[in-house]
Automatic annotation (TrEMBL):
GO terms for molecular function: electron transfer activity; heme binding; metal ion binding. This is Cytochrome c. Keywords: Heme, Iron, Metal-binding. Signal peptide: none annotated. The keyword Transmembrane does not apply. Residues 103-197, 294-427 form the Cytochrome c domain.
Length: 435
């Protein structure tokens, strides 16, 4: 996909979002509610107990903790703790949540529903009205995994990372740029995404314990053995408080990973001094041109070599024609990692069960064609550097092993910059630009 194609994709996405607005609930309809994660619950049922009653208990708990789409709440265990008070400001949460509206002073409200829910869904589950029309599918925030960020593999993004994604969009996808919107709107949306992620991760943690640790499905289960039994509030307040304390521990664990994110930002090592900055200036000297050409040549060799092993997925020439049968983690979680091959004809009925519960139809995740010039996490040299060093969470793209000296077990920062230059040279060639 070339740059113009990416622009067309964004226009199409906006048109789809506009159409989706027309089919959202209108006046007189029931207030919107958060959709429970029945796909994940069903997966846990296969490996544990039947969870219908656990879903009911979980819904009661997370509604008390996080409220509703129209009346969001922040858990007291966060608002009462100074360590977490900077994570989400209540004012930002209230601005981003609720119905689309505007104050007399022109302050927009309902930002998430206005800009995001058509694709990502009210619940942030990637199941908005337009979602099935889009490729790739919109992100499901509830897993708590984000692809493009400045932090190390497996860590949460920073708020600035989320704002950057909102500001720049994701070229080659339906995610448009919101660069024309005020910074305060983007910060409010970023914090609302964190709120949806916290809610989703707490829900998932409760299902895990319900399936693996508690007595759901056991006819002899007592109220004390449940995630949360409201009747214990009066009959056994001590047991009820123990249940509530355990639930708040889930909240603190999820929030702590966000608080720790700024400490996990990966520094970008500068390129070797002898290599000029990319792109070469129009008046680059012959020596600078030669150094860049040498860097690109080294990068090509590393790209196809056994250590970096980029070619196994992206193809020998970076055309994205290596492996084409893998899935992202959002699909793998309920398919391949669940013992379910979605291409197995004998498993069609099982796949249908998951689709009926809200899963998206499985699609293969395709490696990037470097010639396209549409790098979703950014097309600047430092962006490509991060993708190589840190990998891309939620995808088959791993982080590399960074070493100080050349070896057969990893790449030096100089090696990484050589691959960066090779990748960027492919994108220029694909656009018909001179190197």
């Amino acid at each position: 996909m070339k740059r113009m194609d990416a622009e067309k994709c964004t226009k199409i996405a906006r048109s789809i979002a506009l159409l989706a607005l027309l089919i959202l609930p209108g006046c007189g309809s029931e207030p919107p509610g958060f959709r429970m994660n029945r796909v994940f619950a069903h997966k846990m049922e296969i490996h544990g107990a039947e969870l219908d009653s656990a879903i009911d208990d979980t819904q009661i708990a997370i509604t008390q903790l996080f409220g509703t789409p129209d009346q969001p709440l922040l858990p007291a265990v966060l608002t009462d703790n100074p360590d977490f008070q900077s994570l989400i400001q209540l004012e930002n949460l209230q601005r981003a949540a609720g119905a689309v509206a505007s104050d007399r002073d022109g302050t927009d409200r309902g930002l998430f529903r206005k800009h995001c829910s058509q694709c990502h869904g009210i619940s942030g589950d990637g199941n908005g009205p337009a979602s099935n029309l889009l490729n790739p599918y919109p992100r499901d925030f509830r897993m708590g995994v984000f692809k493009f960020k400045s932090t190390q593999y497996g860590a949460k993004p920073t708020v600035d990372d989320l704002v950057r994604t909102l500001r720049h969009g994701m070229p080659g996808t339906s995610m448009p740029s919101f660069h024309l919107y005020p910074d305060e709107d983007l910060t409010a949306l970023a914090q609302y995404v964190i709120y949806l992620t916290l809610r989703g991760e707490v829900e998932r943690a409760m299902y895990r314990d319900a399936a693996n640790e508690l007595g759901y499905g056991d006819p002899d289960q007592t109220p004390q053995d449940r995630l949360l039994a409201e009747e214990l509030k009066e009959s056994d307040p001590e047991a009820y408080q123990e249940q509530w304390d355990a639930i708040e521990d889930y909240v603190v664990a999820a929030a702590s990973r966000w608080i720790d994110a700024p400490e996990q930002v990966v520094a970008i090592a500068p390129p070797p001094e002898k290599i000029p900055a990319w792109p070469l200036a129009a008046d680059a000297t012959a020596d600078q041109q030669a150094e860049m050409a040498a860097s690109i040549a080294r990068g090509r060799a590393l790209f196809g070599g056994k250590v970096a092993n980029c070619a196994i997925c992206h193809g020998a020439d970076g055309h994205g024609d290596g492996q084409v049968n893998d899935y992202d983690d959002w699909t793998k979680e309920w398919t391949m990692r669940n013992g379910l091959d979605p291409k197995d004809p004998e498993k069609k009925q099982v796949v249908r069960e998951y689709l009926a519960l809200g899963a998206h139809k499985p699609r293969n995740i395709l490696p990037r064609d470097m010639r396209a010039g549409a790098f979703r996490g950014g097309d600047q040299p430092q962006d490509i550097y991060r993708r190589i060093v840190q990998g891309i969470d939620g995808t088959p793209m791993p982080a590399i092993n960074l070493v100080e000296q050349p070896s057969g077990s990893g790449l030096t920062t100089g090696d990484v910059w050589d691959i960066v230059h090779y990748v960027l040279s492919l994108s220029q060639t694909g656009r018909g630009e001179a190197l």
